[in-house]
Structure formats: C-alpha cells, structure tokens
C-alpha cells in the first residue's frame, strides 16, 4: 500500500462522518437488503452478491460512472444465458487505447469527487461550530455513547469530567486522559463529543470560616498555572454546589486525599 501512496487513517469512535464514504456504501447496501429480505430476515446473506452487483453497476451521481467501470474500464456483462436479450458483442481494446480511456476516466472522476466533496463541506460548515483545543486543556466528555449506570439515563449528566487533553491527533480528533473507573474505554474522541471546561466566574463564598468546617469528601484535583496543587472539597452539611478548591497545605484530611488518589 505504501508503494502506491496509500495512507492509513484511523477514524474516531462514535463519529460516522469520519469515514463517510464507507458509511454511505453500508447505508445503500442496507437499503437493498431491507427491500428484499423475508419477514424472518434470515436470507440477507444470500442476497449480498445481488446487492453488490446492483451497487457496483449503478452510475453514481458524484462521479458520473459506475464503480465497475471506474475499476475495469467497461460495464459488467452477465454470463450468456442467465439474462435474456443481453448484448453479446465484445469490443476489444489495445492496451494503449484502454490506458488512454482509463486515464481520461480517472481524471474526470477525481475532478467530480473533489467538486462533490467541496459542495458537501460547504453545506456541513453552515451548521458546524469550530472548536479549538490544545494539550493540557480540560474538557467535558459527552455521555451520549458511554455506558454509565444511572437509575435513569434521562436524568443522568449529559457530560462528565473535566478530563485533560494529552494529545492532538488532528484538528478534530483528541486523546484524553481518562480515570480508571471508566474501564478500558478508547480515549480518542471527536471534538463534537467534547465541551470546553470553564472556571466558575464567581467562586462560592463561605458564610462560615473555613477553619470551623469539616471535609466530607474530595471530589477532584487540579494543578494551577503556577504549579499549585488544589483539591475540590465537599463540605459536611453543605450542598455539593458549595464545594470549593482548597490548597493541599490547607487540608487536614490525609486519609480522604489518599482515598481519592487510590480511586483515580
């Protein structure tokens, strides 16, 4: 594949648009099979060759040719006797004539595909929101495709995190550092599944001096731009919305910190 200039490109999870050409083919094959399968849907395997034949011999609007013609330089002719009234004439080409014909065809196909791609991109960009991230940024991850146990999926959080970005694979595909409680989840995601983490504009103001408050649980940890380690502390007898960031040296709860570190 390297000798002919083919490059491998890995797609991100839960984002079909990354591999749009293959997804489009799968959708068309599915439409063919859906129209001819039985009620029990057990004969779809037997119908695959016919679906393949129909797809490969259909002229595509984006190229103006059928896939079979683009590859072989001629339309597919069924075996004599299978279909009545077929054209049994066979036009032979010299190698040079075939090469000239295919070169002209491929140039037209390349130009047509580029035009179709630009047209599709123009339509998609009208609804696309550009997102820009860099390594080290904190982002929230959508729970749309994540299996997390909740009593009710509808009442569960739409996003979880924040999680740090550890690698930018390409402008729209990022690798995150995920906690162990998410299991062996593939940590590469499309930017459409991420949301920027923003610091609260107005930090919660305590009405009671902090020295008289008891720590209930450690919820998170972060490192500021100045290198200061802080923990997100939930206070006993206070709602979770009252949680605040506290420096490590101001916390007198080594056991809770150790439990948090062991968990994450």
Describe the structure.
Residues 1-75 form the Integrase catalytic domain. GO terms for molecular function: nucleic acid binding. It is found in: Nucleus. One of its GO terms (biological process) is DNA integration. It holds the Pfam family Chromo. Residues 203-209 have low confidence and may be disordered. 29% of the residues lie in helices and 18% in strands. The strands form two sheets. Strands 4-3-2-1-5 form a five-stranded antiparallel β-sheet, with no helix packed on it. It has a three-stranded antiparallel β-sheet with strand order 6-7-8, with helices on one face. Helix 1 packs across helix 2 (44-56). The chain has 264 residues and is of the alpha+beta class. The chain has helices at 20-36, 44-56, 67-72, 95-125, 254-263, and strands at 138-142, 159-170, 173-176, 188-190, 194-196, 215-223, 229-235, 244-247. It is built from five helices and eight strands. The chain is elongated, with a radius of gyration of 29 Å. The two termini are 42 Å apart. It folds into three domains: 2-127, no CATH class; 137-196, SH3 type barrels (Roll), CATH 2.30.30; 215-262, OB fold (Dihydrolipoamide Acetyltransferase, E2P) (Beta Barrel). A hairpin with an 8-residue loop joins strand 7 (229-235) and strand 8.
